[in-house]
Here is the input.
Amino acid sequence: MSAPILETRGLSFAYDEREVIRGVNLAIQPGEFVGLLGPNGSGKSTLLRLLYAYLHPRSGEVHLNGHDLRTLPQRAIARAIAVVPQEAPETFGFTVAERVLMGRHPFLGPFEFETARDIEIAREAMLRTDTLQFRDRTFNEISGGERQRAMIASALAQTPEVLLLDEPTAMLDIKYQAQIMRLLRHLNQERGTTVVAAVHDLNLAALSCKRVVLLKAGRIVHDGMSADVLDERLLASVYDVKVRRADAFLPSLES
Here is the structure.
């Protein structure tokens, strides 16, 4: 087995005195598609923020390709890891095309302008996320779902080794849920992009994620192949509610 691309060792974090991540040890191999699941307040979003150094642990370490994140410049982290947050930040005055092109900034030097190649990469990312159609509209005048797709396009423009997503389909209708999950699966399978996504929808997790990490109260309680972890008994123990597996109306992830 190759060395982990992302690894946490004894990771803990607290907001003031409220501990929300407790001794998490997690190794993610290159090319994995990992879903982080758990009830509200289980620590999914906080764990993601620790994985790209937006937050800093109270104790423990996060390693990227064997290097402690605390020793790496932010630009080096941004070249390897792209992030799609749960809520798009305000970007006053920027068009969608300009916001997507910001994904190329980690690769530009001081006072350097985007090249034709950078612009083409951004355009391809917009095509893939069906956002090219409103490229000239300002970011803040498009809908929440359109913003989410634009944020995913910006992350794709980073051409990352690792893509971290926090509830990537939460604001999307069923058409775009399927489109985005197909795209993520393609990036994972065809390009070898490592994908780690906090997912709320158990059905989408079952369809998309090869590996599932179940969190409860800031701890990993189950970690394994999705077919094994997405088990009625295990899910009931984590969500504190009876779960029954049944056929459902699901978006097809086939092309």
User: Anything to note?
Assistant: Residues 6-89+161-239 form a domain with the Rossmann fold fold (CATH 3.40.50.300). The longest strand covers residues 18-28. Residues 174-190 form the longest helix (17 residues).
